Amino acid sequence: MAATGTEPTPRIGPPLTGGEREMLRAYLDFHRATLAWKCDGLTDEELRRQSSPPSTLSLLGLVRHMAEVERHWFRRTLGGADVPHLWSDKHDFQAAYDVSGSTRAEAFAAWEAEVEHSRAVEEAAESLDVTAHVEKWEEDASLRMLMLHMIHEYARHNGHADFLREAVDGVTGA
C-alpha cells in the first residue's frame, strides 16, 4: 500500500455511484491510501517529528494509531479475536503515539497487516447488517456503522496528517 521510494502511493478516487458496500470499501481504502500518501518520501526521522507544537502528534504516530484502530474495530470487535494491543500491554491506545525508536518499516508493516486483516474480516461478513457488541457504546453496532466510523476516523486523522506534513517539509495537497 505505502510507497517506500520516490514514487507516490496510488490513490484511486472513490466511485460516485455503486452499491453501498462497494462505496464504503472504496472510501475506506481511499482514506487508507491518503494516510500512506501523506508519509511518502519522508525519512524515519521526519515521520517521527512532532512538527506542530505543542501537539506531540507525528505522522508515524498516526500510522501506528491507525494500525491499533484497525485491529480494534475489525479483529477484536467484529471478528471477536482475542489479540493484544500492538504497542501496549495495558490496553492503552495512546501508546501508539510514542514513536521513539519506531521506524517506517515497523509501523507500516503493522498497519498494512492490520488493514489486510480488516479487509478479510469485512469480506467474510455476510452483510453490512452483521452486528457486534461495542463495549464502549454499550450496544451492538452493524458492520455498516463500523465502516462509517473507520472512514470518519481516517478522515479526521488525515486532516491532522495534512498539517503535520506541511510543517515537516511544506508539502500540501488533498
Task: Describe the fold and architecture.
The protein is built from five helices and two strands. It is mainly alpha-helical and 174 residues long. The protein has one domain: Up-down Bundle (Four Helix Bundle (Hemerythrin (Met), subunit A)), CATH 1.20.120. Strands 1-2 form a two-stranded antiparallel sheet. Helix 3 runs parallel beside helix 4.
Features:
53% helix, Four Helix Bundle (Hemerythrin (Met), subunit A), two-stranded antiparallel sheet, 5 helices, mainly alpha, 174 residues
- The parts where pLDDT drops under 50 for at least 5 residues are none
Largest sheet: 2 strands, antiparallel
Strand order of the largest sheet: 1-2
The count of strands amounts to 2
User: How do the helices and strands follow one another from N- to C-terminus?
Assistant: HHHHEEH
Shape annotation = globular
Strand content: under 5%
What is the CATH domain class?
A: Mainly Alpha
